[in-house]
Structure formats: C-alpha cells, structure tokens
C-alpha cells in the first residue's frame, strides 16, 4: 500500500472524529505541517505515530492503513471528541485487577475487535477507560492478559452465540 493511501485514510479517520490537523498534531507532539505531509502522501508516517493515532481513536492500525476497512462513524462505535466540541457523557468501564499486565475491552461498540481498547491502570490496580457511547444496550468482555472474562462487578449478562455469556451495559441519556 502506498503512503498516499495511508495518508487518505488518516485524514478520513481524523475528520470522522472531528479533529483538525492542528489538534491531532498537538496530541501527537508533531507540527501541523507534518500531519499535512502525511495526509497528502508526501511523507511517510512512522509506525510509532500510527500506533499513537490508533490509540487516540480507539482503533487498530489495520483499520487505518487498509482501504475500505476504516471504521465508519455510524453511531455504533465510540467516538473520541475534540475538546472544543460539546462532550457526551462518558461511560466508564473498570476492572480491579492489580496483578494484570494488560486489560483490554471488547464489545459491540468496537465490533468485537480482539485488538481491544486498552484500559489504563491506576496505582491501586484499577484498570479504567471512559468512552462516549450512544444510548443503547452493549455487550462486552474484558481480555485480561489474553484471557476473556466477564465484568465481575456487573451481574447483567446475555447469552452469546458461543453458549457463554457477555456482560451487558445499558446506556440511557
């Protein structure tokens, strides 16, 4: 794939999430001109910057670099808002796992992408992330050090197609 196609996909993802070139440049610690050069295909984006972009928008690198695979903003996915926009109330997902090395969140809101959304661990071992989700009922699981598990703090579950259960969180406004 050419760097021009990656640049076009970067631009599409940035615009879908309401970010200007300047805003994403600031988050990445680069100049607006660097973002412009990436998006126009005049400069190659480093892998480390692609990883940062993917983390900012809660998506995989694959979704950024593969044409036609960029996740559309169709109200089924979490959307990271530019701080200038009015922020939606955040939905908190958390898991007490002080000995875990990595905790990911997967569910309806990210099409069960096993790459997951990485939670952040605080000093007490509580892993947490806040997502802006639209109203609706969402099934989800945590992946703790590679092992899938339900949310032990949530007793609301639904049977999935594998004959096991998923945790369920209902968002109302």
- The helix-and-strand class reads alpha+beta
Helical percent range? 25-40%
CATH class of the largest domain: Mainly Beta
> Could you state the order of secondary-structure elements as H and E?
HHHHHEEEEEEEEE
Concise account of the structure shown:
The protein has 173 residues and is of the alpha+beta class. It has 5 helices and 9 strands. 27% of the residues lie in helices and 25% in strands.
Describe the structure.
Helix 1 (3-16) crosses helix 3 (32-40) and helix 2 crosses helix 3 (32-40). The longest helix has 14 residues, at 3-16. This protein folds into two domains: 3-65, 434 Repressor (Amino-terminal Domain) (Orthogonal Bundle), CATH 1.10.260; 91-171, Sandwich (Immunoglobulin-like). A hairpin with a 4-residue loop joins strand 4 (120-121) and strand 5. It is of the alpha+beta class and 173 residues long. The chain starts with a helix and ends with a strand. It has helices at 3-16, 21-28, 32-40, 47-56, 61-65, and strands spanning 91-96, 103-107, 117-118, 120-121, 126-131, 136-144, 147-149, 157-159, 165-171. It is built from five helices and nine strands. Strands 2, 3, 6, 7, 8 and 9 form a six-stranded antiparallel beta sheet that branches. Strands 1-5-4 form a three-stranded antiparallel beta sheet, with no helix packed on it. Helices cover 27% and strands 25% of the residues. The model is unreliable at 67-87 (pLDDT under 50).
Features:
2 domains; single chain; 434 Repressor (Amino-terminal Domain); 173 residues; Immunoglobulin-like; 3-stranded antiparallel beta sheet; 5 helices
